[in-house]
Structure formats: C-alpha cells, structure tokens
Amino acid sequence: MANDTKDLGSCRHSKPSNIDEQTAISTAIAGDGPLSHSALNAVINMRVTRQEKMRLRREAQVAGLTISALGRRRCCGYRVDREVNWVIIEHLRRVGLETQRLDAETQGNYRARTDAILHAVEQAIHSLVE
Fold first, then answer.
1. Where do the DSSP E strands lie in the chain?
2. Are 8 and 77 a contacting pair, CB within 8 Å?
C-alpha cells in the first residue's frame, strides 16, 4: 500500500500527491479544491444509536463542522480540531473576576459558594480549550 493511501476497512481514500492534508482541508473549507462541496457526489448512510448521534452532533458543533464533515474527516484520517470560542471564554473569565470581587466585598462570608462557582468556571474554560 502506498504511503498516501489510508486503509480504514471498507473506506479507502487516496489523497492527491500534489497537496498536503492541511491544504486539502483548507481548500475544502473554502469550497474551491479537490475536496470541495461540488466534488461530494456520493452518500453513505450510517445507523447509530441516539446517544451516539447526540455525541457526534456535539463533537461536530465543538469543531465548527457538520456531522457529515466530521465523519468525512475522521473516516479519511484527517485531523479534527476544536473551534475555540474566545468570546465565551472571555465571558467566563469575567464571571470569575466578578465572583472574586463579590467574595472580597462580602469579606469571605460566602467563601464555599464562591469557591464552587470559581471551580465550575475554571472547569468550563478548560473544557473549551482542551
């Protein structure tokens, strides 16, 4: 098997030798390349459980893709990156700062609650960037 062919059971994909994976993905996203939307002319139906469908939908949403695009990239061995939403991270950071300010204003009277809020904010930020 050639180096530029990935064998994934019944799913085989040969990438063109004159482009690399990132270029192929970038041009596919832009809609003007060998993997552009107009080149997608075949359909594969797949049965999954409701839980798997929900998980795939969540993963696609986090990556900023459709379920089809996520499946194509996974099946063909391309990398799937998460799309980091910096606006949400900034809002969470502000919630954390405001919580710290309130803790200082109340002289720590609600320390257990503010610590729980700060912990939840920190976990939310980490889940968005990891």
1. 5-8, 11-14
2. yes
Query: What is the distance of C-alpha 38 from the center of its chain?
Result: 24
13 forms bridges with which residues in the sheet?
6
**pLDDT tens figures, 29-81:** 544 444 555 688 888 898 999 999 999 998 888 888 899 999 988 888 888 87
Angle at 123 between CA 63 and CA 62, to 5 degrees: 10
Q: How many residues are given for the chain?
A: 130
| Tokens of residue 80, six digits | 């799937």
**Cβ contact 48:57 at 8 Å:** no
> Residue 31 burial by CB count (10 A; 0-12/13-18/19+): exposed, middle or buried?
exposed
Q: What is the mean pLDDT of the chain?
A: 76
Closest by Cα among 18, 10, 19 to 78: 19
Q: Do 24 and 15 form a contact (C-beta atoms < 8 A)? A: yes
What are the distances in angstroms from CA 97 to CA 73, 87, 127? 39, 15, 19
